[in-house]
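Consider the following assembly input.
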Amino acid sequence: MTALTTFLEQGLTRRNRRRSFATLVMLLFLVYFMLPIFWLIVSSTKSDSQLFSTFGLWFAHFDLLQNLHQVFTYDGGIYLTWLGNTALYAVTAGVGAALCSTMAGYAFAKYRFRGRNVLFAVVLGSIMIPQTALVIPIYLLLSKVGIINTPFAVILPSLVSPIGVFLMRVYADRAVPDALLDAARVDGAGEFKIFRAVSFRILVPGFATVLLLSFVATWNNYFLPLVVLSTPKYYPLTVGLAQWNSSSSAGGGANVLFSIVVAGALVAVVPVAIAFLLLQRYWQGGLTAGGVK
Amino acid sequence: MAGSSQVSLTPTKAPAARVWHTRRRSLQRALVPFAFLAPFLVLFAFFLITPLVYAFRMALYNERIVGGTVFVGLSNLEQAVQDSSFYTGLEHMALLGVVQIPIMIGLALLFALLLDARAVWLPSLFRFGFFLPFAVPTVVAALMWGDLYAPSFGPLSQVSRDLGLGTPGFLTSGWMLGSLGNIVTWEWTGYNMIILYAALKTIPPEIVEAAAVDGASPLQTALRIRIPFISPALVLTGVFSIIGTLQLFNEPQIMSVIAPQVIGTAYTPNLYVYNLAFSSHEFNYAAAVSFVLGAFVFFTSYVFIFLTRKQR
């Protein structure tokens, strides 16, 4: 609103003309980025037959509530189980990964020890390992120890976040002054006390960023749960939705209705979108660390 | 480390006890960083190093129906290096990467520069709107775009027909790479924009102001000062994009449901590895192929880092 008032007050100066043109270009791209999401919202309000018979980018008869009801009751309400699983996996893996990464990044940033550089290089290099190269042996190893097809098979591997360690090292490097640590040591505080009482408080924004990124990565993960889980009651939303999608694409009477898949996809997106909306300052500011190093 | 100064502050004790105490303290001190590292390193060892070693060991063996597990040395790896199915997938990804990555990072850079220079109205709307696709699971993204692409009821085809342009063949073999590239661009442009935007924010304002005082145009400032300043962040987004492209799996796997004739079992290297392992149950050979893929990812990333470093 203020932007609009200034715009009107100043009239079409050269700078404003340029700004309006740039804004117009950005608006076109905004349409592009919003198009699938708009389609998803519109489609989740339509009945199954209308999805195929009406124009895809505008509303027809409003059946959102019926669709949501179907999503949550289909197949004995399995969708709610998937939603709960996804939340469980994402929260535990997010918090766990953020804690491990924060401590490890802090150690890399604030202590000198033998093998520090080699170890850090190994951690960074591991980002390049293809998922399949890890997920297939993880599948076989977890089968041997008997935790395949359990929630642990998804949560434990998701706790490892080399990018999180990288981000937290850069963040701790800048945010925690050595002088502050030395002052605390002179006061007689032990290293772990210093971490809990002093350093961690300073590291909270970075911690929150890694938490958010790991949460989203686990919420959206598909490949790992696809491989390590085989019982539908353990599925997260991604695997469940993909299976519903294959079933509905196959057609025929006994399959999942397409309208259920679409409404289910919308419900899967909403929590993360809201999290991003509320936590803007973390993903906007905190990613800084990764960007500059 | 303020080791010695702290010891001198501890209350005086008998000399012998004090030496022992000091030694114990310094040993403790040396172990402190490893205590902080322990939770991560234990998980890292279990879920990264062990599987990697295990996969390499697997690649050296074969399961035979008669005779069980036999050591075959490097023959699986040799076969993988010469596997034409693997190269088909790799070619697809190379083609996709060469076209899609520059477009995506170029757009992300343009958006970041415009937002950082306050050259647009409503910047927070664009920041959030462009970043939002990152919040959408790739499975859902592929599902949505798959339906948008659909030749019969897909809205893009509906619009195209209404405009008299006929039905576009988004899901045909000629267009599929482009259609997948569009999904990837849609998902990741905003994420890259945020990384670059954050890097631009760290440029000291004096530098840009000085350039403006010297009469540099916004375009010159962008090309000569702001883009060179954030080149490390640009390299980072480039490396992450290369790694991501070579490992593409979710999008083609979901799209194969609606275009099974176009996306076969080896459309991307990771899809090939997955199908080798879980459709054909050739776990050993799958491990070998994934190792060769890993070598390619390493090689390409390092070549990219090397080439971009030369220019700085």
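Confidence is low (pLDDT under 50) at residues 288-293 of chain A. Ask yourself how this observation constrains the way the partners meet.
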